[in-house]
Structure formats: C-alpha cells, structure tokens
From TrEMBL:
A Pfam family of this chain: LRR_1
Keyword Lyase recorded: no
Subcellular location: Cell membrane
Primary localization: membrane
Transmembrane parts of this sequence: 698-720
Name the UniProt record assigns to this protein: Leucine-rich repeat-containing N-terminal plant-type domain-containing protein
Length: 745
C-alpha cells in the first residue's frame, strides 16, 4: 500500500512538471518496462534474477523505478543515470532499449561481464557519460555512435575485446573530454579529426592496442590535453614538433612503439609536464637541452632508444625530478651532474658514460636506486657512497672501477643489494658485509678482491640470499659459519683459491632445503606523481654459469637455488649430508681435488637440473640413485676415477653424450660404447614412467625458457596504480617483444 502511494506520487509529480521523458505516465512505465526487459535477459546467476543477493533485486515492477538500485532520476521522475559498476552483471546490452530512456545522461556499467557488441543506441542525445570499461565486449566501435550520442563527454571502452579501427566519425562527439579505448585490439591509424574536432579533450588514452601510423601533427589543436597515453602500440614515424603546443600536458607516454627520429626541441615548451615516458622506441639524436625547462617534471624515462651524445648540462635544473632513466642508449661523456635533491632513482646503465664516480651523487639524500652498470666509468669509489642514507640498491658492475672499497663508519642502514661485479676492485671485501646488515644480494664477482671469507659472516648478514664472489683472489677455508645464512639460496665461490674441505654444515642452509616458489625478490620504492600513486621496482639481475653457459637471471632470480664451488683447490669428500638440500637446481664442484665417492643419496636432490663433478678425483661407482633425478638435463662426471656400470633410468637415457663420462678409470654401459663384463650395456626399454617424465621435462623447459631464457629485462619497473597490475601477462609481453623493461599496466 505504502509502496503504491509512493509510485503514484511520483507519477503525479511527473505529470505536473511535463518534462521531456515524462509527459505521460506511460512514458515512465515504458522506462520501467524497458529496464525490466533488459534485466530478464541477464544471466540469473550473475546479476539478473531475484535471489536475495542479486544486485538487481530492487528492480521490481512493484517499486518506483527511481528507487531501484543504480538508478537516478531527475525531478520529473525520468531516468537520467544508470550506474551499476562492478556488480557482476553477466549478459549483453542488446535488450536495453535506449529509445525508452530519452533522459539518460549517464550509463556506467564498468567492471561487469557484459559481452556482445556495443549496441547502436537510438538517439540518446543527452547521453554524456558512457563507461563500459572492463567488460567482455567484442566487435567494433560502431560508426554511428557519434550520431546517436553527439553530446558525449566521457567515453570509456577500455579493457574489452574490441577490434577494428577507431571510427573517424566519432569526432562528431564535439564535447568530448575523456576518451579511453585502451587495452583492446584496435587497429588502423589514430584519426587526426579527433584532435581537430575535440577542442575540450583533456584525456586521450589509446594505449595497449595495435594502432599504426604516425602521431598526427594536428594533435596541436587539442590544446586542453592533460594526459596523452599512446604507449604499447605500433606507432611509427617521428614525434611531431607540434606536440610542444600542448601547454596543459601533464602525462605524455609514447613508450613501446617504433617511433624514430629526434626528440623534438619543442618538448621544452610543455611547462606542466610531470611524466615524460618515451622508452623502448627507436629515437635517435641528442637529448634536447630544452628538456631542462620542464620545471614540473617528476619522472623522465627515455630508456632503450638510440639516443647519443652528451646529456645536457642544464638537466640539473630539473628540480622536481624524482625518477631518471636514460639506460640502454648510446649516451657518452660525463655522467650528468644532478644536483636535484629529490631523486629517488637514477638508471644510466648500458651507455658509454665515462669519467669518475660523480661525487654529486653523494648529495642525493633521497636516492634509493642507483644503476650505473655497463659504462666506462673508472677510478676509486668514494667512501661517501656507502653512507647515502636511503640507498637500497647499487649496481656499478661492468665498469672499470678500481682500488679498495672504503666503507665509512656511518654506513647506510637500508642497503639491500650491491652489485660491483666485473670491475678491477681489490682489497678486502668483508667490510661491506659487516656494515650492511640488511644485505640481500652481494655480487662482487670478477674483480681482484683478496682475503678470506670472515667467520662472522653468518652472524652479521642474516638476510643474505645471494653471495657471488666468483673469479677473485680469495683464499683460505670456506668457513662452516656460512651455514648460519639461513636465507642463502645462491652461493657462487667459483674460480678462487679456496682450500680445505666442503663444510658439512652447508647441509644446514635452510633456504636450499625447499624449492623456491616466489617469483621475484621484491625491491621497490614508492613515490607520488601528481597525487596519483605510482611505484617503481627494481628487478634483480645475477649472472650464473648455468648448464655450462653464462646466463643473466632476471626478475625470476628468486626461483634459483644452487652452489658453485668449481675451480678452487677443495679436497676431501663431498659431504653426504648435502643431499638434504632438496631445493637445489644446480651444483657445480668441478675442477677441485675432491675424492672418495659420490654421495649415495644424491638422488634425493629431486629438482636438480645440472650436476657437474668433472675434473676431481672421485672414485667408486656412480650411485644408482642418480637415475632418480628426473629433472637432470646437464650432467658431467668426466675426468674422475669412477668405475663400474653407469646406472640406467629414463632421465639418464636422455643424457646420451659420452663425453660426460669420459676419462674415468673404468665406466661401462650406455652411453659409452663399452660393454660391462656381465654384458648388460643394452638400452633399457622406456618404462611406464616415461610419459610422466616427458610432462615433467616439458614443464622444466617451459620454466627454463621463462626464467632463464634469452630475454633480459633490466630496468626498473614502473607501476602506475590507476592501470592495473598483471605480472604474468607482462612476462608474456616481455618474451614477445624482447624489450628490456616492464611497465605494468
Ligand atoms: C565472463 O563471462 C564469460 C562467459 O560469457 C566467462 O567465460 C568468463 O569467465 C566471465 N568472466 C568473468 C570475469 O566473470
Ligand atoms: C537520430 O537523429 C538523426 C538526426 O538528428 C536522424 O537523422 C535519425 O533518423 C535519428 N535516428 C533515430 C533512430 O531516431
Ligand atoms: C577508464 O576505465 C578504466 C577501468 O575502469 C580506468 O582505469 C580508467 O582510468 C578510465 N579512463 C579514464 C580516462 O577515466
Ligand atoms: C588547428 O590548428 C591550426 C594551427 O595550429 C589552425 O590553423 C587550424 O585552424 C586548427 N584547426 C581547427 C579545426 O581548429
Ligand atoms: C629499431 O630499429 C631496429 C633496426 O632499424 C629494429 O631492429 C628494431 O626492432 C627497432 N626497435 C623498435 C622498438 O622499433
Ligand atoms: C617552443 O619551443 C621552441 C623550440 O624550443 C621555441 O623556439 C619556441 O619559442 C617555443 N614556443 C613557445 C610558445 O614557447
Ligand atoms: C690483482 O692484484 C694483484 C696484486 O694484488 C696484481 O698483481 C694483479 O695484476 C691484479 N690483477 C688484475 C686483473 O687486476
Ligand atoms: C645442523 O644443525 C643442527 C641443528 O642446529 C646441528 O645439530 C647439526 O650439528 C648441524 N649440522 C652440521 C653438519 O653442522
Ligand atoms: C662448472 O664450472 C666450470 C668451471 O667454473 C665450468 O667450466 C662448467 O661449465 C660449469 N658446469 C656447468 C654445468 O655449468
Ligand atoms: C664434460 O666436461 C668435459 C671436461 O670439462 C668437457 O670436455 C665435455 O665437453 C663436457 N661435456 C658436456 C656434455 O658438457
């Protein structure tokens, strides 16, 4: 009864006001009828239906339409808004009769599961806001959309499965302010009309599609643009000089395209620019000095292009800069002098910078990430480097730095990751360890460090996960206290002068006892860009001698567990207890003086993929448990004193290269062409396990391809919160495109 009265009241109200939709009560009934018809087409399990938790439960004929969930009406009782974001609606828009909703101004159905095509609405001339983002729409953007909805101001079709071109006719929506068709499968060119006929446009987002062609010079007509996101397409040609006329631009991201030619000098006119991202293109020439006019710039990312020459000196006047990435170009000359005190991250790796370590960096009180690796820098490292208060990550590897490391007493508390590999550094390395208790990764390989591994190592670096001291001049015993490093998962002491035996206590390295499951070692830094939350993270990068070849493990380094003690002077036996370390993926004890036999429980190392014991003095027979190593696909037992029959087993049968057993005392059986005395050198028939094994080795090769393959990603991640995170999809992208950088969107 009460319900009826309310309905009647709104009918009366409508009747007296005589507004467009509602000149009669039948028009209102029509609205209700049309909405209910649409509701009835929705899948009952998802959004439709009348079960108690249905988001559309309130949509019933007994209630006034204006009281329904998600419906707003004007004073006349006509439906003006339909907003049901993220309620789990599952269905299509086919049955939604726009003709019956003539007063509709806003339709927001984002984050549902609406499939099918975008309906071609009848003339809803008042519709100004249409958000269908994050659904499962397919088909094309209808050519007639602009004619039906000429007053559109906000059109968001992002994250659907739309294909075909962006229709030229859409330029007819002349009041357009925010246009977002990102993350679809759109092809063709960006119609220049959109910039010429949309004088009010402020946000133009078409990233992550398959758009081709150039950036139209007519872009300069869209003078109110604040955000221009064209990244992750196949755009080519040059960046038009006209871009400099977009005085209001704050976000300009053209990354991951095939743009060529220079960065236009006119970018210096974009005085409000906060973020400039031109990375992973084919831009050439110099960085224009005008870039230093960008007083508001907080993030500048030009990495992975072919920029050359010196970095303009005036760059140090960018007082708002927090993030600078010029990596993977051909820049030369001195490292730019940066007096900016707000810098959080500096990435200049993979260039041709020369000169000494810039002392100005010691003044960067906010600096958290510093990557100067793979340049031609030389000289000693200043002690002040180690006292940067916020520094977390330092990579200076592959330069020509020399001399001792002089850590200052006041060392950084936050240092987590130190990469100094492949320089000419010398002296004792131990002080770095002592001062930095948060260290997770220490890579000092390929230098000229001397001395021993201190016995206090286990006590002072409880978090250490990676210790790489390969190819130095270290000597002495491997201290048993190493086993206190309960997080240690990668230990590379190869190619030094260590003596004595392999400490039994290594079997107590907790982190090597279980396979690793996490994908990455997280190291990230948060910062704000213009109020929007943004963050960047550094992916770790370690070189490992993996299955006989050097690989750079990146991103997924956290999955890797192994011990490399090869090329030292170690003697004694291989501790039996090492078979406890069931998370090991590789073990290399090659080129030492290890004697006695191979531990008989070696088969317990279930996920071991690579085992190299060559060039030792191991004797006895090869334990039969070795045939239980289902993942083993790199084995070398050559140049020892082994004898007896080579065990057989499915996985071992795949290791058919005779050289892995060569030069021993008396091995026989497959794959050697030597029959054992009892005549059993015949290849055993593959047993019932072989299919399972095939599946397993397929899994491993996928993992190996993914994790340790040929792709590199070396730069920081840029993660922009408004665009959602999908790390696995990114990995696919990385493999597809072999780019060096992840920008998670
Ligand atoms: C959306 O609906 C389709 C079937 O139409 C289904 O396969 C898919 O899993 C649904 N997606 C979500 C996110 O519910
Ligand atoms: C929509 O309006 C245009 C002109 O304003 C007209 O030509 C067209 O016939 C109308 N379409 C419908 C379905 O009413
Ligand atoms: C479009 O929608 C997506 C997803 O709902 C959102 O992240 C994005 O910010 C929207 N675009 C604009 C320009 O508002
Ligand atoms: C676009 O801008 C140019 C000058 O930059 C001007 O001559 C032209 O009239 C503008 N076009 C429109 C459609 O506004
Ligand atoms: C840059 O150009 C080179 C050769 O001209 C080409 O191999 C490469 O794929 C291009 N890179 C991009 C990102 O377009
Ligand atoms: C824009 O930049 C160019 C090149 O740096 C300069 O010559 C021109 O005066 C600038 N225009 C404006 C309006 O600032
Ligand atoms: C390493 O240091 C020693 C002296 O400590 C020196 O003789 C040798 O040349 C250095 N090696 C390299 C590669 O710098
Ligand atoms: C490993 O740790 C256990 C418990 O702390 C200890 O009893 C054992 O002696 C250690 N083993 C070796 C070989 O150090
Ligand atoms: C083990 O180390 C030696 C010497 O460092 C190297 O030559 C060999 O390739 C490594 N073996 C594997 C399987 O990586
Ligand atoms: C095994 O090691 C020996 C000696 O280092 C080497 O000649 C041979 O090529 C290696 N075999 C394989 C398959 O790596």
């Amino acid at each position: 009864m009460a319900r009826w009265t309310r309905t009647q009241a709104s009918f009366l109200h409508a009747f007296f006001l005589l507004l467009p939709c509602a000149s009669t009560s039948s028009a209102i009934e029509q609205e209700a009828g049309s909405l209910l018809r649409w509701k009835s087409t929705l899948s009952p399990a998802n959004g439709g239906g009348d079960y108690p938790s249905s988001p559309l439960l309130s949509w019933s004929p007994g209630r006034p339409t204006c009281s329904w969930h998600g419906i707003l009406c004007d004073a006349a009782g006509c439906v003006t808004e339909l907003s049901l974001p993220g309620v789990g609606i599952h269905g299509t828009l086919t049955a939604l009769n726009f003709a019956a909703l003539p007063a509709l101004t806003k339709l927001d159905l984002r984050r549902n599961n609406i499939s099918g095509h975008i309906p071609i609405p009848a003339n809803v001339t008042g519709l100004a806001y249409l958000d269908l983002s994050h659904n499962s729409l397919s088909g094309v953007i209808p050519d007639t959309l602009a004619r039906a909805t000429p007053r559109m101001k906000h059109l968001n079709l992002s994250s659907n499965g739309l294909h075909g071109p962006i229709p030229r006719s859409i330029s007819g929506m002349q009041e357009m302010r925010a246009f977002d068709v990102s993350k679809n499968k759109l092809t063709g060119k960006i119609p220049p009309e959109l910039f010429m006929e949309w004088p009010e446009i402020t946000e133009f987002h078409v990233q992550s599609n398959f758009l081709m062609g150039g950036i139209p010079p007519d872009i300069s007509n869209a003078t109110k643009l604040q955000s221009l996101l064209l990244y992750r397409n196949s755009l080519s040609g040059q960046i038009p000089v006209e871009i400099g006329k977009l005085k209001n631009l704050q976000f300009l991201i053209l990354a991951w395209n095939s743009l060529t030619g220079p960065i236009p000098h006119t970018v210096g006119n974009l005085s409000r620019l906060v973020l400039l991202g031109l990375f992973v293109n084919n831009l050439s020439g110099r960085i224009p000095p005008e870039i230093s006019n960008l007083a508001a710039l907080e993030a500048l990312d030009l990495d992975t292009n072919q920029l050359e020459g010196e970095v303009p000196e005036a760059m140090s006047s960018l007082q708002s800069l927090q993030y600078l990435d010029l990596s993977s170009n051909r820049l030369s000359g001195m490292v730019p002098y940066l007096s900016i005190s707000k810098l959080h991250a500096i990435s200049l790796e993979n260039n041709r910078f020369t000169g000494e370590f810039p002392l100005a960096f010691c003044q960067q009180a906010s600096l958290e990430i510093l990557d100067l690796s793979n340049n031609q820098l030389y000289g000693e490292l200043p002690p002040c480097l180690w006292s940067l208060q916020k520094i977390q990550f330092i990579d200076l590897s592959s330069n020509a730095f020399s001399g001792n490391i002089q850590t200052s007493a006041k060392s950084s508390l936050f240092l987590e990751s130190v990469h100094l590999a492949n320089n000419n550094l010398m002296g004792e390395f131990a002080l770095v360890l002592k001062r930095c208790r948060r260290l997770t990764i220490l890579d000092l390989g390929e230098n000229n460090f001397s001395g021993t591994i201190p016995s206090w190592i286990g006590a002072s670096n409880p978090l250490l996960r990676v210790l790489r001291l390969r190819s130095n001049m270290l000597h002495g015993n491997i201290p048993w206290q190493l086993s206190h490093l309960s997080s240690l998962q990668l230990l590379d002491l190869a190619d030094n002068s260590f003596v004595g035996s392999i400490p039994r206590s290594l079997a107590n390295l907790t982190a090597m006892m279980q396979p690793k499951a996490e994908l990455n070692i997280p190291l990230e830094v948060n910062y704000q860009v213009l109020g929007k939350f943004a963050r960047y993270a550094y992916t770790e990068r370690i070189n490992i001698n993996w299955k006989g070849q050097y690989h750079t493990f990146e991103g997924t380094i956290a999955l890797m567990t192994g011990i490399d003690l090869s090329s030292n002077y170690l003697s004694g036996e291989i501790p039996l207890e090492l078979s406890n370390l069931q998370g090991l993926r590789f073990l290399n004890f090659s080129r030492n003086h290890l004697s006695s036999s191979i531990p008989k429980d070696i088969g317990n190392l279930k996920i071991l993929e690579s085992l190299d014991l060559s060039w030792n003095e191991l004797s006895g027979s090869i334990p039969s448990s070795i045939s239980k190593l289902m993942s083993l696909n790199s084995l070398n037992l050559s140049n020892n004193k082994l004898s007896g029959e080579i065990p057989t087993g499915s996985q071992l049968q795949t290791l058919a290269e005779p050289s892995i057993y060569s030069n021993n005392l008396g091995l026989c059986g497959f794959p050697l062409n030597i029959a054992c005395s009892d005549g059993s050198n015949s290849t055993p028939a593959p047993n019932s396990q072989s299919q399972e094994l095939e599946a397993l080795s397929w899994y491993y090769s996928v993992l190996a391809g993914l994790t340790f393959g040929f792709w590199l990603w070396s730069g920081p991640l840029l993660l922009f919160e408004p665009w959602r995170v999908a790390i696995f999809r990114c990995i696919d992208h990385i493999q597809d495109r072999a780019v060096q950088k992840v920008f998670i969107v």
